[in-house]
Design a protein that fits this description.
Length: about 110
């Protein structure tokens, strides 16, 4: 009787960190983790979407975290423009996949 080689499963190659696919999958994982954190914190009515008020709070707190020594100013026009960029289907709410596209597109 032939025994299975217990080391056989280790034949799989280690993922190469320089491989574009590997990099993308790691990046996608990180982006998804960040989005889950954002939703846990800002989807306060827990309906699975970020509405405009929820997204405004996210933008305001992110801006505040980036410039802790300055009073936060977020012009409504600027916020509206960014929100429209993220909210691709113009539903007035952001779904996770829209946020993922936005982050992939605008954050290197
Ligand atoms: Ca919500």
């Amino acid at each position: 009787m032939i025994q299975d080689d217990p080391d056989e499963k280790e034949d799989q190659p280690e993922p190469n960190p320089n491989d574009a696919k590997y990099r993308d999958s790691e990046r996608v994982k990180r982006i998804n983790a960040i989005i889950d954190e954002i939703w846990a914190k800002y989807d306060t009515d827990d309906n699975g979407y970020l509405d405009k008020a929820e997204t405004y709070k996210l933008a305001l707190e992110t801006a505040g975290a980036l410039n802790p020594d300055q009073p936060v100013e977020l012009q409504q026009q600027v916020f509206d423009a960014v929100f429209a960029q993220i909210d691709k289907d113009n539903s007035g709410q952001i779904v996770k996949v829209e946020m993922a596209h936005f982050i992939k597109k605008f954050i290197p």
